[in-house]
Structure formats: C-alpha cells, structure tokens
Amino acid sequence: GDSVTQMEGPVTLSEEAFLTINCTYTATGYPSLFWYVQYPGEGLQLLLKATKADDKGSNKGFEATYRKETTSFHLEKGSVQVSDSAVYFCALGLGGGYNKLIFGAGTRLAVHP
Amino acid sequence: DTGVSQDPRHKITKRGQNVTFRCDPISEHNRLYWYRQTLGQGPEFLTYFQNEAQLEKSRLLSDRFSAERPKGSFSTLEIQRTEQGDSAMYLCASSGGGGNSGANVLTFGAGSRLTVL
Q: What is the pLDDT of chain B when averaged over all its residues?
C-alpha cells in the first residue's frame, strides 16, 4: 500500500549546520509530496510541496526535490537556526477527487546554539 | 478568518465515558478531515467530508467513533465508551476543492488531546 518512510530522529545539530532529513515513499500513481512542520504546542503547518517529478519545493531556506526515480523527497537546509527546532513530517497526497494525506512518523530536529 | 479551530484543546476522561470534539474549519473550505496522532507517530487518516457528505472512513474508525458535519460547516467527532487506547491527539484539517486536488493544501488545527484514564 501507499506509505512514507522517514529517517528516525532525533536529529541534533549545532546552529548553522547543514540539515538533511531523508524521506522515501511508496505509492501507486503520481502523488503530490509535502513537508509539514509541527512546532511545540502548535498545529501542523505546511512547509513546502511538490506536485510532480523533478519539481523543487522551497520555503524559509528549506528545499526538497521530488525524485521519481528514487521515490524520495529529502528535506535540506543549508544553515539551521535554533528556531527550526520542531518535528518534521513528510507526507504524500493522493488525488482521486480529494487530498487524503499519508504521513511519515516524523523526525524531531533539535538545534543548539 | 483565524484558521481551523478545535475545542476542547485537552480532555481527560475515565474509561467508558463518551467524549465529543468540535472542529470549525476555514469558512470557505468545503473539505474537512479528521486525523489521529499518537505519541511519536505521524497523523493517521480517520475520515473525510466534502460539504456535509462523509465520503470516506478509515478502518481505524471503529463503531464507537462517529463524525458528523450536519450543515457543511463545523464538524463533531464523538467517541463512545472510551478505552485507554483512544488516548491520542485528534487533529482536524480543512481544504478547498477544485483544480489538482492532489496539490490542495490541508490547513490543520492545533488538535484536541484526549487522555483516557
């Protein structure tokens, strides 16, 4: 069935370090791919998205490229800040008339000064 | 519009009691979703409404769970005879329709946390 696999956390980095959070997916058809972020005490927020192969989503210095050949959508940021500490969720969106999302288990990121 | 609102934010109940959660979506959104999130896991899909019609229910939604959206605006999720395994965060989300539905963005509420003692 359709599924998303993320690297396990927590990921602990120093400020200004490079971030990669791996995400791979299994899906029939051509899903859209998303990264959502959950800050402590807040709801899930869309970080970025890509709707077709080779699309690159970007926002707030974060980037992810939809790689159909490797079924991946890895999240990257060149220089993390303490304020980026949160839980990051990779998700795939199934079409068919509505947008049902299937989420990965989430990866907790902790950035230290 | 202030986004998706959920109430209550936290509910503590004893096993066997009934609980009800309310979700007020973004007013112009015709699609509404309920998800459940347990500790250390990603959200799991429970059910979906388009306007007042409930179009899909997950196998996770046992007979003790019922969701309604009577006028196509707010929605309620009721859990009858709660069990300790029901303890989780219940998330509501809404989205608009049309276009490439696979790319529509879900806007989530902050969630309602249920603790069953």
A: 91
